Amino acid sequence: MFERLLPNLRLNSVYDLDIEALARRGIKGIITDLDNTLVGAKEPSATPRLIKWLDKLREHGFKVVIVSNNNETRVSRFAEPLGITFVHAARKPANRAFKKALQMLDLAEDQVAVLGDQMMTDVLGGNRLGMYTVLVLPISPKDEGIGTRINRIMERIALRSLRKKGLWYEEETN
Ligand SMILES: [Mg+2]
User: What are the helix (H) ranges across the chain?
Assistant: First the structure.
C-alpha cells in the first residue's frame, strides 16, 4: 500500500540532478517544492548556488514552477526575485495544484519531473499524476513545521514496510 510513496529517483540534493539525463527522458519541465528542497525552510531567499543551478536549468530549456504548501508571502518573496512562477498554499499531495502547475508549464504529465523532500506530499502527488518523481534529503530537518513532522512519522511507517518488501535500500541515495 505504500508503493505510491516511492520516488523514481533518490538524490542527496537538487544539485545531484543529472539535467542531461532528465532531458533524454523527454522531461521538459520541473515542478519543484520550495522548503527544504531548494533552500532551508527558514531561508527567505535563494542562495548563489541555487541561482546558478536555476540558470543552468533554463539554459537547458527546462521550464520551472514552484509548488509549495507554504503561504503566499513566503513563496512570493522567494520566487518573484528569481522570476519563477509559483503555486502557493498548494495542499499537496492534492491533485489540483499539480494540475494548475502543468497548465502553467503547458506540458503533459510525462514531460514533467517533480522534485521534493517529502514522500507524503511531493512524491505521492507527482506519482498519482504519472510524473517522474525525485526525492531529495531535507536541507534543514530541524526547521520543519508541525505538519511536516507528522508527515515524517507517516514516512517512517511507510519506509519500514517498504524495506521489508525489499523496495527501499538505505544506500540508494548517492
Ligand atoms: Mg519541502
Answer: 19-24, 48-59, 72-79, 95-105, 124-128, 146-164
On whether residue 21 sits in a domain, the answer given is: yes
Per-residue pLDDT tens for 103-142? 999 999 999 999 999 999 999 999 999 999 999 999 999 9
Full residue range of the structural domain in which residue 157 is found: 3-168
Domains in the chain, number = 1
121 Cα: distance to centroid of ligand 1 (angstroms): 8
Question: Ligand 1 center to residue 36 CA distance, Å?
Answer: 5
Distance 41 CA to ligand 1 centre (A): 7
Contact 113, 133 (CB under 8 A): yes
* Å from CA of 103 to ligand 1 middle: 22
* Residue 20 within any structural domain of the chain: yes
Contact 129, 98 (CB under 8 A): yes
C-alpha cell belonging to residue 61: 530549456
